[in-house]
TrEMBL record:
Documented EC number(s): 2.7.7.7
Molecular function as annotated in GO: DNA binding; DNA-directed DNA polymerase activity
CC terms in the record's Gene Ontology section: DNA polymerase III complex
Protein name in UniProt: DNA polymerase III subunit delta'
Any matching Pfam family: DNA_pol3_delta2
UniProt keyword annotations, A-Z: DNA replication, DNA-directed DNA polymerase, Nucleotidyltransferase, Transferase
Occurrences of domain DNA polymerase III delta subunit C-terminal (ranges): 248-326
Keyword hit for Nucleotidyltransferase: yes
Catalytic activity: DNA(n) + a 2'-deoxyribonucleoside 5'-triphosphate = DNA(n+1) + diphosphate
InterPro entries: DNA_pol_III_delta_C, DNA_Rep/Repair_Clamp_Loader, P-loop_NTPase
C-alpha cells in the first residue's frame, strides 16, 4: 500500500498520518480501528515503512528505495515485530517476548516498530504487560495496535495511544477490491458484506467456507419458501454441520439476513445484491412476499443474532428462527423462555 492508495479510500486518515511523518512527530503508539482489517494492516505497514525509512527528506517517506523500505516490503526487516493471536488470544508471554526484543538496540537503525494484529484479543495479563511499555516506551519505538473492537481494549491503553478511526468502505468498494484480487463476482459480493468473518479461518479456508455456507443458505431459503416441511431436515443435515460454532453461526445468520435483504432490494429494483447470481429466485420470492413480511423476516434474523450473543442454545435458537421465518413474524420475548 502507498499513500495514494490509502488516500483514495481514507483521506482523513492519510492526512493525519502523513502530516505526522512530515513533521517527524509520530506518537509512540497508535490504535487503528475499523471494519476492514486488510486496509488497516496495509496502513500499519505503510506507516512502519515510513518510520524506518532512511531518506533524509520527511516528505519523501517512505522512499521505497532504501534498504529499510525494501526489507519492510519483503517482510524481512529485523526491527519490525508482528504479534498475532496464538489460538484464540494474544498471551502475556508474547508481549513479554516483544518487550525483551525491544530492550535491544535496533539492528538496522535506532528505531523499532511493532504491530499487534487484533489487539482486542489480548488477555488481561497481556494487556496489562503491554501497558507498562506504553507508559515508558524504550527508545525510538512505534507501536501500532489494529482492532475491529476498540471497546474491548483496556481504557488505559486507549488513553495512552492516538486512535485513528478508519471509516467503513462501501460495499461496492470492498466488492471491487475483492474482484481485483481474483475473487468471483458471487464470492466477492458476499465477502464484501461479511468482511473477515469468521476470524478463526485463514483467508483461503474462509473463501471455501463462504462458498459452501452461502450454498447452504440459498438451499435453506428455498426450503422455507417452497417446501417448509423439509426445511427442518435441511437445518439438521446441512446448516448445523457447516455453521458448527457460535462465530460460524453468527456469520451464517448474516448470510441469511443478506438473502432477505436481497429479496427486498429486488422488489425495489435495486441491483446491489449479495446474491447476484440468484436473481431469478429472488424475483420469484419478491413477487410472493410483501414488504412487511420481509421486514419481519429480517428482524427475526437480527433478533436471533442478539440472542445468540446472549448464549442461547444454538440448535434451539435456529429451530425457533425457522418457525418465525416460515410464519413471517417477529420474535416475541416469550418465545425464548424455554431456551
Amino acid at each position: 500500500m502507498e499513500w495514494g492508495t490509502l488516500r483514495a479510500e481514507q483521506p482523513v486518515v492519510t492526512q493525519l498520518l502523513q502530516h505526522a511523518v512530515w513533521r517527524e512527530r509520530l506518537p509512540h503508539a497508535y490504535i487503528f480501528e475499523g471494519e476492514d482489517r486488510d486496509e488497516q494492516l496495509g496502513a500499519a505497514f505503510l506507516l512502519a515503512r515510513a518510520f524506518l525509512c532512511s531518506n533524509n527528506d520527511p516528505a519523501a517517506k517512505p522512499c521505497n528505495q532504501c534498504s529499510e523500505c525494501k526489507r519492510v516490503q519483503s517482510g524481512q526487516h529485523p526491527d519490525i515485530i508482528i504479534i498475532r493471536s496464538d489460538g484464540l488470544s494474544i498471551k502475556k508471554a508474547q508481549v513479554e517476548f516483544l518487550q525483551k526484543e525491544f530492550a535491544y538496540k535496533g539492528m538496522e537503525s535506532t528505531r523499532k516498530a511493532y504491530i499487534i494484529e487484533e489487539a482486542d484479543k489480548m488477555t488481561t495479563s497481556a494487556a496489562n504487560s503491554l501497558l507498562a511499555s506504553l507508559e515508558e516506551p524504550e527508545g525510538e519505538a512505534l507501536a501500532i495496535l489494529e482492532t475491529e473492537n476498540l471497546h474491548f481494549l483496556l481504557p488505559t491503553i486507549v488513553s495512552r495511544s492516538q486512535v485513528i478511526s478508519f471509516r467503513p468502505l462501501s460495499e461496492a468498494s470492498r466488492q471491487a477490491h475483492l474482484r481485483e484480487k481474483g475473487e468471483t463476482e458471487e464470492v466477492a459480493a458476499i465477502k464484501a458484506r461479511v468482511g473477515n468473518k469468521p476470524t478463526s479461518l485463514e483467508d483461503g479456508e474462509r473463501t471455501n467456507w463462504i462458498v459452501q455456507g452461502r450454498q447452504v443458505v440459498i438451499q435453506l431459503a428455498e426450503e422455507v419458501f417452497q417446501r417448509p416441511l423439509q426445511a427442518k431436515w435441511l437445518l439438521q443435515d446441512k446448516w448445523h454441520t457447516h455453521f458448527n460454532d457460535r462465530e460460524g453461526l453468527d456469520t451464517g445468520l448474516d448470510f441469511l439476513l443478506f438473502w432477505y435483504r436481497d429479496v427486498l432490494y429486488t422488489k425495489w429494483g435495486r441491483e446491489d445484491l449479495a446474491y447476484p447470481d440468484q436473481l431469478e429466485r429472488l424475483k420469484t420470492e419478491a413477487l410472493n412476499r410483501s414488504e412487511s413480511m420481509l421486514a419481519a423476516q429480517m428482524k427475526a434474523v437480527m433478533e436471533a443474532k442478539r440472542y445468540l450473543a446472549a448464549n442461547v442454545n444454538p440448535q434451539l435458537l435456529m429451530e425457533r428462527l425457522l418457525l418465525r421465518l416460515q410464519e413471517g413474524s417477529n420474535f416475541a420475548s416469550s418465545d425464548w423462555h424455554s431456551l
